[in-house]
Predict the structure.
Amino acid sequence: MDICIVGRFPPPIGGVSVYVTRRYSHMLNSGKHVGKLDFSNKLFLFELFKFKANQYEVNSINLFVVLIFFFMGKINKSIFVDHNASRHCSGVKKKILLFILNYSAGIYIVNPNLAGFYPSNFKIKLISPFVPPDESEYDSIYDKYPKEVKDFIRNDSFVVNSAWKFIPCGDGDLYGLGTSLKLLDSIPEMKLLLVLGLYEPDFFPEYCKKLIVKHIDSGRLCILSGQHQLWPVFKEKPIFLRLTPTDGDSVSVREALHFSCKTIASDSIVRPAGCITYNYGSFESLQLILNEHL
């Protein structure tokens, strides 16, 4: 076997798993001898032990995962993809991780700013985490959307924010869901689609719960929850929001730009060409920019 791609399947909205799944499909369709392994499979270790590949592409630099490949004797055939995880690694954990990764076949990074984590002797390659979707799958994906979502995205212009789930961060949340709801409440002509892999209403603060109820009732808010690919939504040309305090090279941003959507993102990192950036932490900056592009 030429290569084994290791990640998590099936793909949720955006993120690493979409990259893993699409890369696997593209390599398979190109005629390469390729296999895949799923981290979430309870038999993962047994399956990895059985696999005999010339190269492993491991979409994680989690220390536990790296240790598995080290102790199984596959580290020198493994290329590890850093999708942003190194930003959260420091101290003793960083020293152990770098010591083991030094024996790997190399590191792929999705953002040039991640290179500073690694010593100069490391084999580093910059890649894009975005693999264009197979648009022939549009109908099968779109048909799985609930009717209320189809109706919402087919009528008038709208704004999209996507997240795995509500994750508290500082005074707000990691993906700016609360900020999106505040924008909706302050801009009368705005309509908002929230795309959530896991929608847990009880985890939202009270002001968010009230705004959700208020604007679902007003018809200006719609929530798409569960495991869905997002790109058919982007074909409707919404404005896409990426309101994160830190980031890798966001797949969802690349996807939105690929489909010519106006994309407003925080200035927390250098964004791809075509992004419209605002001053992260400044609601007024974001509101002003969004108003300009609605």
